[in-house]
Amino acid sequence: MHETRLAAVPFPFTSTSALTGPSVGTARPLLLDGAELDRVVEAISFQFSDLQSSQSCFWKAAWMLRRYGIIRLRGAAGPDQIHAINAEVSQLLEEIESTDHSRLESLAYLNLPERRVLKGYNQFRDADRAVINYRVKRPDGRSGSDAGMIDIFHPERLSETLGQQIHGCLQESLIQRLLLASSLNRLRVKCRNLYLNQGVQDTRSYHCDGRSLKFKSFVYLSDVQSLADGPYCFVPSSHRRRRLWWRNARFNKNHGLGPFEFSQLNGQSAIPLLAKAGDMVLSSQRGAHCGHPQHPDAKRAVVVNMYQR
Ligand SMILES: O=C(O)CCC(=O)C(=O)O
Ligand SMILES: [Fe+2]
Fold first, then answer.
1. Domains in the chain, start-ordered, CATH in brackets?
2. I need a surface site. Which of 80, 143, 217, 236 has the fewest CB within 10 A?
3. In this model, does residue 242 exceed pLDDT 60?
4. 306 forms bridges with which residues in the sheet?
């Protein structure tokens, strides 16, 4: 069944669409594509409604997540839900891009390119209001800045309507049960985000979000059909490969890179998680992942939920 289909992917993979990047001495994985990609992603895909109605589907999904570190859940949110949330998000985006921020400033921290009020992930995560964080180029010019991305922390606090819609599509109680079955740990929701990417090209390369047990669920609000749309990418099973992590950590230390970069992924393969609006990707953040650089005209919107102990 699923397991054999995934395991049957030949090594090394034949795909040629590796990401290319400017960073010196780093080696990216090959990105699967075509029929090979379809086969691998189908094997880790489940209908969200089957997860709710079938115990065996639920346990299979939990097991696949444990083994591969990533699954795709089709139809976590319905078309009406997605349509409604997108209407709210586009109004919000219009307001962010306008010159009048008085209303937004009264209910959120606005971290705009020319005016930073909060600094660093922990301050954003622990803020008492929503944070609208406009990612900018790094002062030292290093790559991977996600410049141009609007990363909204705690978007559910921006309005009651948006709050209800976000809670509706995140399906937290089922995901928490699934994570318990998969990781044997009770995980809590630590932070919700809304990623708004419009032609973001300088995305951070492969990395993990630390070494502790952490999962993210990504509900796509827009169809992500090709690499140009900037899909989430993941190296299957990398969350459990300690030696791969040590090899990367050693290289990073010797070359002045951060400990959580996956800079040495030569010979590995990654999958871009193409999916439709309403689908959810559930991922172990210990694994090697990145957002693929977008075409300058492409747009992507994702609701993100972070689970930790
Ligand atoms: O933009 C993306 O798809 C990935 C961002 C990322 O690295 C993360 O959410 O941990
Ligand atoms: Fe990440």
1. 24-138+145-308 (2.60.120.620)
2. 80
3. yes
4. 191, 216
